[in-house]
């Protein structure tokens, strides 16, 4: 095959395919950035108007076409003015390299924040009870606690579970990236075969896992061990890596392979 044939093959097959793939990736990444700003609502309105224009053109609706063509210059100017703050944010993110940043890195951020605080509390032997709300509402428990509705952060969790604070003994309820409430009291498990060495935090975490689909992280005040309670089961003394994997699997619905040998109950 000579060079001219290769060039013809490239222009006929490879170049159009690469063109479409690169354009699709760029459009998708830009859409991801727009969804994090208010501009997405304006973009949807613009697409809706464009679809109306296409329908009017295909069906030859002369009056509607005349009105849309008359309004088009004003709409373009208005969109440029309205989109200006949002476009600024998009271009700033592009300059920071956010266009091709992996989305998976952002999804694990909240677990890193929580586990960072949990490790510090474990080292200081300060107990903690952290509830991750899933599908079943925990409004009854939240209403009995102290409503916070604050952005999730390690410093806020450390402040809540600091000794001699009013909220130290209760549980924190987290949904998404926000702390909904603190100082919440959970129902205690009525299981008879719970080890006597487990304290009130472990029993409360197990109790909530029996009546809801929540996932509860426990930091032991006596040993500093990290434990998880969910689906009416308590998994004691887990490593930080195992806790993170299981949280991602249960809460983010990811199909991560975490064997049951990694999740065990201490003898």
Give the helix/strand layout:
Elements: H1 3-35, H2 39-58, H3 62-95, H4 104-107, H5 109-123, E1 128-132, H6 139-144, E2 146-151, H7 154-160, E3 171-175, E4 178-184, H8 200-211, E5 215-219, E6 226-230, E7 233-238, H9 240-251
Parallel strand pairs: 1-3
Antiparallel strand pairs: 1-5, 2-4, 3-4, 5-6, 6-7
Helix pairs in contact: 2-3, 5-7, 5-9
Notable characteristics:
9 helices, YojJ-like (1, elongated, seven-stranded mixed beta sheet, 267 residues, alpha+beta
Largest sheet, if any? 7 strands, mixed
Query: What fold name goes in the CATH topology slot of the largest domain?
Result: YojJ-like (1
Mean pLDDT: 77
Radius of gyration: 27 Å
Could you say which overall geometry the principal axes of the C-alpha atoms support?
A: elongated
Query: Under the CATH scheme, which architecture of the largest domain would be assigned?
Result: 3-Layer(aba) Sandwich
Order of secondary-structure elements: HHHHHEHEHEEHEEEH
Oligomer: single chain
Number of domains: 2
CATH H-level superfamily of the largest domain? DNA integrity scanning protein, DisA, N-terminal domain
Report what the structure shows.
The chain is α+β, with helices and mostly antiparallel strands and 267 residues long. The protein folds into two domains: 3-101, no CATH class; 106-251, 3-Layer(aba) Sandwich (YojJ-like (1). 54% of the residues lie in helices and 15% in strands. The chain is built from nine helices and seven strands. It has a seven-stranded mixed β-sheet with strand order 2-4-3-1-5-6-7, sandwiched between helices. A hairpin with a 6-residue loop joins strand 5 (215-219) and strand 6 (226-230). Helix 2 (39-58) runs antiparallel to helix 3. The chain starts with a helix and ends in a 16-residue tail after the last helix.
